[in-house]
Amino acid sequence: MELREFLFKPLQDRSYSFAIRARENGILSGAARMQELAMELGLEVISVAQEGALLVPGTPVFVARGDAEMVTRAEETLMGAIGKPSGVATAAADIVKKASPVKVVCGAWKKISQATKGELRQAVMSSGAGLRMTEEPFVYLDKNYIRMFGGVAAAVGRAKLFDPDRLAVVQLRGEAQSIVEEARTAVEAGAGILMVDTGILADFKAVKAAAATDGWRKSVKLAFAGGVTPEELSNIVVLGPDIIDVGRAILDAPLLDFGLDVEG
């Protein structure tokens, strides 16, 4: 007889209600996965909070009933479905608030392992941050595309041959040209969004100044990226980007704290 089976033998005819509650402020994410796991455990689900719900300490996110072994297994599995996603959603929502009215996106979710990619993608969505630079059809030309094509103009030109109306989003690193000349070359080739991805504010200032001088600021959106942290947001926002791409500061967020307690 296994230890848990031995311990619970006197309780085998009893059932217990329990609740999972938030222990800190945040945003719930992972609700669907939590409910799915609860059904697999055979729990009688009483209530589940909605994805994206605002949480304060004590907020119940899940209430159910089951026997002693089910309750124990619930504590081992259900909170794992919401801890990290809720932490990510909470961090992202805080960054969205601090960056307002500038759009915040988190494209780095694509770099996450397949096992957790879907959950963290949903967490970003639940926070109010974007997953993509734009909702329009676009092609993203990163530094490796540019290197392989031998330059920005060739990469953008090839993308435009596929579909002249598809928006070209270009990652600017200032490798083969200065960051300003790279931006100008991209615009002349037909780029619609330029992402200054150096993490250097002076680079963004220079590109924005060129956009104003050359007369294409209103027709081309400017994004900034490169290790953006919450502490830097105010300095970035004041420069007037259209989009800020934040990666690790969102996806490396700590778990949001939850607790499971038997209540009857």
UniProtKB/TrEMBL annotation:
Q: What does it catalyze?
A: nicotinate beta-D-ribonucleotide + CO2 + diphosphate = quinolinate + 5-phospho-alpha-D-ribose 1-diphosphate + 2 H(+)
Quote the cellular component terms of the Gene Ontology held in the record. cytoplasm
Sorted keywords for this record are: Glycosyltransferase, Transferase
By sequence similarity, the record places it as follows: Belongs to the NadC/ModD family.
According to the entry, every stretch annotated as the Quinolinate phosphoribosyl transferase N-terminal domain falls at: 12-86
| Protein name, entry field | Nicotinate-nucleotide pyrophosphorylase
One Pfam family hit: QRPTase_C
The Quinolinate phosphoribosyl transferase C-terminal domain sits at 88-261
The organism's place on the tree of life at top rank: Bacteria
Q: Which GO terms describe its biological process?
A: NAD+ biosynthetic process; quinolinate catabolic process
